From TrEMBL:
Full-protein positions shown: 50 to 303 of 303
GO cellular component: cytoplasm
GO MF annotation list: ATP binding; biotin--[biotin carboxyl-carrier protein] ligase activity
Protein name (Swiss-Prot/TrEMBL): Bifunctional ligase/repressor BirA
Domain BPL/LPL catalytic: 1-187
Gene that specifies this protein: birA
The species this protein was found in: Methanobrevibacter filiformis
EC number: 6.3.4.15
Domain of life: Archaea
Root EC class: ligase
Amino acid sequence: KDCLKTETIGKEIFYFKEVNSTNSVAKFLAKNGTDDGAVVLSEVQLNGKGRRGKKWESPSGGVWLSIILKPKISPSKASLITLATGVVVAKTLKAMGVDAKIKWPNDILINNKKVCGILTEAHANYKSVDYVIVGIGIDTNLNLDILPPIIKEGTTSLKKELKKDIDDNEIIYTFLNEFELMYEKFQKEKFEDILNEWRLLTQTIGSYVEIKQPFGKILKGHAVGITNSGALIIESENGELTKVISGECAIKTN
Ligand code: BTN
């Protein structure tokens, strides 16, 4: 169980004690001919990147890794890799014994607290994808007390949830093994299967949400579904349906 069984994902692993960001290293490697499936791992990131230009706190105590992908798919499908990765993380964490849920588009939560974030960076032209970097940050043994208070509040770690030290290697192997299975489905264009798995693992659909959209607009309503391209469908009070491609989603519990 505790080993890597993959053929593509993790065939090459670049391991570092310290880098600025595994996504940046992976991007550099991808541009310079590194193959599909290579993985970059670092114990510490000095300048970890979060979504929307935010910093991602990455001291030792977490799994910080990036996967280089060079899929032969149309660029319009590339964004689905992020949703698919969320499915893989949620399954991995469930196998560790926690009730992990996906919050649209790509946070993984345990008891409503974030335990993992995903940052995908794609490089494509209008007809093909050069490379996609999928960056995953999982708080395994992270000491939450060192996080800035505002982040700490909404964050948890596997160690805190399971009340024991976590074996990072076990998480990494399980994740990469699962990732390869998903990536095979992806390359075979079984997008509908992946979206269905996503639907089963999300806590967003069925909830009342508030979405902060890129230009500051706030959309409120019930999340009723997800489109084939991964957009969230919101039904507002007056019954109007809106598709949201990106934004910050807050789930309202009352
Ligand atoms: C988020 O804002 O939720 C996304 C966080 C993504 C963090 C991971 S850690 C490994 C990879 N390298 C980075 O610099 N960021 C991603």
